Amino acid sequence: MNYQERITSDHTVMLGKPVIKGTRITVELILKKMGEGATTDDLLAMYGNLKKEDILAALNYAAEVISGEEMISSTK
Predict the structure, then answer these.
(1) Rounded distance between C-alpha atoms, residue 4 and residue 17, angstroms
(2) How far apart are CA 9 and CA 18, in angstroms?
(3) Average pLDDT of each block of 10 consecutive residues along the chain (76 residues)?
(4) Which of 3, 4, 18, 55 is the most buried (most CB within 10 A)?
């Protein structure tokens, strides 16, 4: 899936955070809700204009961003 078809960033919308095109729903919000245990069905019910493909695009976007990150090891 090409997340660029569904994710956009515009400094005039949500301070430039990546959002689902045509909404103010941020990738961050989707990831946060899923991290709190929300399912795809929960998100679709909470946000009526969200589509399953939008959620998958948000996950793909996050994976791509993280793939370029460097792992920080903690020492204990």
Answers:
(1) 14
(2) 5
(3) 92 96 97 98 97 97 88 66
(4) 55
The residue range of the domain holding 14 is 3-64
Number of domains into which the chain is organized: 1
Residue 71: inside a domain, yes or no? no
Q: pTM here? A: 0.86
> From CA 46, how far away is CA 56, in angstroms rounded?
16
pLDDT, residue 72, reads 67
**b/e 29-62 (16+ beta carbons within 10 angstroms → b):** bbeebbeeebeeeebbeebeebeeebbebbbbbb
